[in-house]
Write a structure and sequence with these properties.
By secondary structure, this protein is α+β, with helices and mostly antiparallel strands. 46% of the residues lie in helices and 12% in strands. It contains five helices and two strands; from the N terminus they run H-H-E-E-H-H-H. The longest helix has 25 residues.
């Protein structure tokens, strides 16, 4: 059951009491609060104790947090990923070092095909509405993935079927 003191519960009550509230912004806030609640729950399970809780089952302690901006169809949401004193933690609901959604990936692929430089792709991504842009190393990694897929396509076997063709 949801914690009645969670940020999601607070936002739901805010929407129910104020009908004039902009629903698109509230949805983004609810998404952010829900994701943050899930991250905190997973961190608690990993550590063996909630924040500020004393427990014999605790494996390590929290040591602050680091910010991660997640690009979603509702807009960018800022999340706080807990850091640990011993070991590392990254929530399973996020993909490490992956922020590019499919539409943005397609734009980067097309830019690579058209010969746009990796530096100019960052400007293109910002123009599409992603304020944080994209790093050159991410563009290079995506282009390397494309090169690998093209090489695999060109080296595929074609003896599995008969291909009719005309030599005229």
């Amino acid at each position: 059951m949801a914690d009645p003191n969670s940020a999601v519960s607070t936002l739901i009550n805010q929407v129910l009491t104020d009908p004039d509230l902009a629903h698109s912004d509230v949805f983004r806030q609810m998404l952010q609060a829900g994701l943050q609640d899930l991250i905190e729950a997973e961190a608690t399970a990993t550590i063996g104790a909630a924040r500020y809780e004393r427990s014999e089952d605790r494996s390590t302690r929290r040591n602050g947090s680091r910010k991660k901006t997640l690009a979603t169809p509702s807009g960018e949401v800022d999340l706080a990923i807990p850091k640990l004193r011993k070991g590392s933690f990254f929530p399973s609901l996020l993909n490490p070092r992956r922020r590019v959604d499919k539409a943005l990936y397609a734009v980067i692929c097309q830019a690579w095909i058209d010969g746009v430089s990796t530096r100019k792709v960052d400007d293109l991504v910002r123009a599409l509405g992603n304020e944080s842009g994209i790093s050159r190393s991410t563009v290079s990694r995506i282009c390397a993935d494309i090169d690998e897929a093209v090489a695999e396509f060109l080296a595929r076997r074609l003896d599995h079927t008969w291909f009719p063709y005309s030599s005229s």
